[in-house]
Amino acid sequence: MEKHVEKMLSLGFRFNPSAEDLITFYLPRLIAGKPMKDTEKFICRADVYGSEPSDLAGKFAPVPRCEKGGRFFFTSCKRHKGSSTKKERTAGAGTWVRQNSKEVKNKAGVKVGETQNFRFKKDGSYTDWLMEEHHCCRQQAVAGDEEPVICRMYVSPRAPPDSAARQESAAFVQQQPAPQVSEPPCDKKKRDDVAEEAPAAA
Questions:
Q1: 9-13: which pairs have CB atoms within 8 A and are 24 or more residues apart?
Q2: For 87, 88, 97, 169, which has the most beta carbons within 10 A of its beta carbon?
């Protein structure tokens, strides 16, 4: 499958879904446990609110040649107790602060979901990490206090070249499989010793 994806990328394939695509096509399939095989490599499963963006950037590669760059995650956001709308946005030692939200409508003009935009804040200061959180209107998308969403995390296009977020985003290191260690060949002298010590056949 990875070779198939690499071939598509070499032919100019772009994984650059719109908000409507994410909400009406990809998110329902992920919720149902039936992700698209050709693109599941681009939407990773991770606890976005259990890690800071720098930690996620070190574990997951950005999507190649995607507009805005960045990474896509299938995750769940939790509601605060006693609130049906307010959700927790704490991530590590920082917090995702909501900037604005926008209704997402299909071609018929019917609302199908919502996109909320966030900026990561840590130690009292805003960073250059931004995130889009895509919500589905379907009732089955909500399970108890958790709501499955697709998040798109990326570095602000306005971030300066020496921005800490840019450096963190570029820090991903492809995990290489551990090399297989083969046993060294048995020494000829030892083989002869074993042969001499072998008991004679009865």
A1: 9/64, 9/65
A2: 169
78: number of CA atoms within 13 Å, CB side?
Answer: 9
Closest by CA position to 27, among listed 152, 126, 119, 170: 152
The pair of three-digit structure tokens given for residue 173, joined into one six-digit string = 């290191």
Q: Residue 95 and residue 91: Cα distance in Å, rounded?
A: 5
Cross-strand bridge partners of residue 44? 73
- Report the predicted TM-score, pTM, of the whole model to 2 decimal places: 0.76
C-alpha span between 79 and 145 (Å, rounded): 5
pLDDT digits (tens, 9 = 90+) for 169-185: 988 755 544 455 555 55
127 neighbors 165 (Cβ within 8 angstroms): yes
Tokens of 184: 């060294």
Residue-wise pLDDT tens digits, 73-121 = 999 987 665 555 556 688 989 999 999 999 999 999 999 999 999 999 9
How do the domains of the chain map onto residue ranges? Answer: 2-178
CATH 3.40.30.10 fits 2-178, yes or no: no
Contact status, residue 44 vs residue 75, Cβ threshold 8 Å: no
